[in-house]
Amino acid sequence: MPQTSCRKSLLLVFGVCIFAFPAIPLAQEAHPPHWAYSGPGDPKHWGQLDPAFAACSNGRQQSPIDIRDAKIADLPVLKLDYSAVPLSVIDNGHTVMVNYAPGSTLTVGDKVYKLTQFHFHHPSEEHINGRGFDMVAHLVHKDAEGHLAVVAVLFKKGAANPLLETLWKNIPPEKEKTVALPSVSVNVKDLLPADLGYYTFSGSLTTPPCTEGVTWYVLKTSSTLSPEQLATFAKLYSANNRPIEPTYQREILETR
């Protein structure tokens, strides 16, 4: 075959191949499996949804727990150095979450953690001596090595909370879309009770992948929210709480 004909044939072959088989992306974005609080993706099935979620079924230090038989101990105080920040909020399809700008810290003894975000569960995930609460806020912190510490603030119906009033008025209408509102200032310390006594134990994230090694600080004194504030959140999430997990042989300590 003449050289020019060969070149034409090769171009034709490659042209057909390119037309018949479109280019395949070198990398495709991986989407984690859908999980939920009810239906086929509910907490009973989290561990089977993805190998990365195995701890949800197999872990021995899972959260939340029913806090019982805590041992009173001389524990360091929680130093909560929280600053006001512009509001950055998202309804992520599982809860309402506020992303916190850098600069706010939790110090426990010689450990310092940076506050990264806080979010809500209704009803509360943590129980104390068998008692649940109307809602809980989880304040998520991370230290320089990536270790997580969560401060849990329990809520019961009573007086309205001004910070919740601000947050609920600014929940984005569209899910999974973060909305930044520079004109709205929030300070998470406005969720806290006056008494910062706490229970502490080793646990996990309460959502997939249920990663363990999280240090929990559950405040012993609850805060309040109004029935109307609770109803507003319940319209979005009537039940976004993981059920109580076994404590096994974990040590639970409490402040004096």
List its traits.
single chain; 256 residues; alpha+beta; Carbonic Anhydrase II; 13-stranded mixed β-sheet; two-stranded parallel sheet; 15 strands; globular; disordered N terminus
Report on the architecture of this protein:
- There is one protein chain.
- This protein has 256 residues and is an alpha+beta fold.
- It has one domain (37-254): Alpha carbonic anhydrase (Carbonic Anhydrase II, Roll), CATH 3.10.200.10.
- 17% of the residues lie in helices and 32% in strands.
- The strands form two sheets. Strands 2, 3, 4, 5, 6, 7, 9, 10, 11, 12, 13, 14 and 15 form a 13-stranded mixed β-sheet that branches. It has a two-stranded parallel sheet with strand order 1-8.
- The chain is globular, with a radius of gyration of 24 Å.
The CATH topology is given as: Carbonic Anhydrase II
* Main β sheet profile: 13 strands, mixed
Strand content: 25-35%
Measured between the Cα atoms of the first and last residue, the distance is: 94 Å
What is the level-2 CATH architecture name? Roll
Quaternary structure = single chain
Which CATH class is shown?
Answer: Alpha Beta
Alpha-beta content class = alpha+beta
Number of strands: 15
Fourth-level CATH superfamily? Alpha carbonic anhydrase
Number of helices: 5
Element order, helices and strands? HHHEEEEEEEEEEHEEEEHE
Low-confidence stretches: 1-28
Alpha carbon gyration radius:
24 Å
Shape: globular
Helix content: 10-25%
State mean pLDDT (0 to 100 scale). 91
Counting structural domains, the number is 1
